Amino acid sequence: MILKPDDAARLAEMVAGALAEGAPLEIVGGGTKRGLGRPMQTRATLDLSGLAGVTLYEPDELVLSAHAGTRLADIEAAVAAQGQMLAFEPPDLGPLWGAAVGAQTIGGVLATNLAGPRRIKAGAARDHFLGAEAVGGRGEAFKAGGRVVKNVTGYDLCKLFAGSHGTLVALHGVTLKVMPMPEKTRTVLLLGLEPAAAVAALAAALGSAHEVSGAAHLPASLARRSAVDLVARAGAAVTAVRVEGPGPSVAVRCAALREQLGRGAEAAELHSMRSLALWREVRDVASLLPDVTAALWRVSVAPSDGPAVAAAVAARAPTEVLFDWGGGLLWLAVPGTGDAGAAIVRAAVDAVGGHATLVRADAAVRAVVPPFHPQPAALAALSRRVKDQFDPRRILNPGRMAADL
To answer: How far is Cα 109 from Cα 76, in angstroms, rounded to an integer?
Structure first.
């Protein structure tokens, strides 16, 4: 059964009805991330794509409100027309699970708290999430947050909802801040570095005064797949450092970075459209790691530990890896057979501290291998208590993040 509300009141009625019947709901917007998390057993799908449209946009105030089912592509087009952007650079990961490009909604982006390469400078999605309108698992409608941070009192529930994957509330309205689009974008490339040297160079760039907004490393096999000619033809690993801002400033900072980082490595530079294209590839992942039969892991560790974690996994299984966030975010593609590399990947991560999310694997694997990194007992107990407050009957996306959530 598919339930598709056309306004907030109808949404509350549907959730209340499901609660009365004890009928769990799967919440979807664009449906692009249904392969993320544990498989769920639900009686109905709550389709929020009918709750769409920008409801308020004040470019001078850098604030936008929209229904949660609004396509992200429509929001990005609206703000781009005013020379603005979503600074956290939300990735379009739908193609990793076979979804169409551009189909994801703003509610899904915020519910999963996904951010792209600019996260190292601009922060996560939750840092731009100002206000929410939602219906909880008790069938009660409520609002949280506001249009500006200084107007918010009490608990900052938006931070809690971001990353909850629809297990706490069904979002139907969101407010977020937007930022001016940079005048110029350039990317300094270093060629031929091994992962440890690449991450050291990225750390130096991030620790400099040059306001780096992207720091990634593509081993040679990934670089060859890039649609950016200078990257694909490099014939070697490519380490990328992005700089954004006013044109003269960008030129000066890129020259300084090339001087600082280019000793001992061949350096090049991408301008304008080539630079934008490379960072779209890093952001969206799918074109750089295209093997759909591979299990895909999203690993977060201290940047200095990234190369060692990647090497530990590669020593025990065929592995391809994309380094982002200066080495702190690894996308690991490993064989999708057996436990999809869970024992190997999580052992490598646990050795240094961090977490590993199984982003893509067969449903049968995700039913027995926890997709989200197991929490310490105290944190797991806290998560259950939070779930008990918002959705005590486990009506909303039950079991998506953990068996008892």
So the answer is: 13
Instruction: Enter the pTM of the model.
Output: 0.95
Paired with 251 in beta bridges are none
> Can you tell me the distance from the alpha carbon of 11 to that of 34, in angstroms, rounded to the nearest whole number?
20
Q: Which residue, 305, 324, 124, 184, is CA-closest to 241?
A: 324
184-284 adopts what CATH topology? Alpha-Beta Plaits (3.30.70)
Total length of the chain: 405
- pLDDT tens for each residue of 242-295: 999 999 999 999 999 999 998 878 899 999 999 999 999 999 999 999 999 999
**Bridge partner list, 47:** 28
Q: Where in the chain is the domain with CATH 3.30.465.10?
A: 2-180
Domain boundaries for CATH 3.30.70.2190 within the chain: 184-284
CATH number for the domain whose boundaries are 295-366: 3.30.70
Q: Which residues of the chain have pLDDT under 70?
A: 148-154
> Which residue spans within 285-327 are E strands per DSSP?
295-301, 320-324
Q: Does domain 2-180 have CATH number 3.40.190.10?
A: no
